[in-house]
Write a structure and sequence with these properties.
Layout: H1 16-28, H2 36-49, H3 53-57, E1 64-67, E2 70-76, E3 82-88, H4 89-106, H5 126-139, H6 150-164, H7 167-174, H8 179-182, H9 190-197
Antiparallel strand pairs: 1-2, 2-3
Length: 203
């Protein structure tokens, strides 16, 4: 028969308790100034939207709108489709309001840019964000097999599925072309596993 190892491996993600620690570390981490507002905003957008890091780094200043206490971010996805995600105002406002002034001064287009070279403002790299996430995890004492920033996306998806039990909603939120890709998050559903384990309780 087929080995269990052939099935898709459940991704590493942060539990609710770990997520609380991680969110606190985003606020408390000793960033090198003047990068603190930018880095906090970038990581928060990733964790609160489930966007791919490449999508976060490609966000443009004009892609952000604020309406009814929600920040809307317009992004171009992997399949070259346009989609919109939202984050509540109070989750981002403190960092966004400061960083947007710097971003507009530094670059007319991209939301997240490097501040190192004043003459040639460049887009941040994905390894930079991965290292930042690893630093934040170490700061709050969390060890993960895969420390990369992609784990933030898995955390978002796992939390969304556990709260809604709506796999199609998770598929839409993650912009997965196939539901099969998203089904990995149902493997992490402890309630469903418990329900099955209770089958023989009365036998």
């Amino acid at each position: 028969g087929k080995s269990l190892n052939n099935s898709k491996k459940a991704p590493d993600y942060l539990s609710c308790e770990e997520l609380t620690l991680f969110l606190n570390s985003i606020e408390e981490y000793p960033y090198t100034e003047p990068y603190s507002f930018r880095n906090r905003l970038m990581i928060k957008i990733a964790i609160y939207t489930g966007l791919r890091i490449s999508e976060v780094l490609s966000l443009r200043v004009k892609d952000v709108t604020l309406e009814d206490e929600l920040y809307y971010f317009k992004t171009i996805t992997k399949g070259n489709k346009e989609r919109i995600v939202g984050v509540k105002y109070n989750k981002l406002a403190a960092d966004y309001n400061v960083w947007i002034k710097v971003a507009k001064r530094k670059h007319k287009d991209l939301l997240f840019v490097s501040l190192k070279n004043t003459n040639n403002t460049t887009k941040l790299s994905q390894p930079y964000v991965h290292n930042l996430v690893s630093g934040l995890l170490r700061y709050c004492g969390l060890t993960k097999t895969k420390e990369g920033a992609h784990m933030l996306r898995h955390t978002f998806a796992t939390l969304l599925y556990r709260k809604t039990k709506d796999i199609v909603l998770v598929q839409e939120a993650l912009d997965h072309a196939s539901l099969n890709t998203t089904k990995i998050y149902t493997h992490l559903d402890v309630d469903r596993i418990k329900k099955v384990s209770e089958l023989f309780d009365d036998v």
